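**User:** Hello, beginner here. Are you able to go through the protein record under this note? It all follows right here:
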Amino acid sequence: MATDSLEVWMRGPLAGIAPLLQPVAHALLQVQEEVHAVTKDFRDKDLWTKPGGVASVGFHLQHMAGVLDRLFTYARGSMLTSEQLGALKREGEASTLTVSDLLSAFDHQVERAIDQLKSTPETVLLEPRGIGRKQIPTNVLGLLFHAAEHTQRHNGQLLVTVKWMREGS
C-alpha cells in the first residue's frame, strides 16, 4: 500500500517535531490534505453561500487559518495584534477572496504552525499561558491541542457543507 493513501498519522513521525507534538502536526496536515481535496473545483461564486443558514465555506476556510494564527500566538506567550483582531472580526464576511486565496492563506498558517511545532521543545508544554485580555489560564500543550482539534472540527463542517452544496446544485 502506498503511504500517501494512508492518513497522515499512519505515515509515521514527522522529522523535527517532538514526539508529544506529533498528533498536533498530523492533525493539521490531515486537514490540509482534506481541505484541498474537497475544494477542488469549488466555485468562487459559492464561497459565501450559507446553505440552510449554516456557515459558508469561505467562513470555515478563513476561520481555520485564523484559529491557527491566534492560538499559536498565545502558545508563544504573545498577545494578539490589532491586525489579528481585525481579521477575526472580518471572518465570514463576503469578500472578493477566491478559493485559491483562502487555501493559500490556510496553507501559510499550517506551514507556520509546523515550523512553530518544530521549535517547541517538550519541556515547555506545561508552561502556563493566558488567552485574551482576561488571560484565561491554560498551557502551551492545551493551546496547541485545541488549535488542532478546533481546525478539525471546522474541517468536518466544511466537508459537509461542500457536499451539501454540490449535491444541491
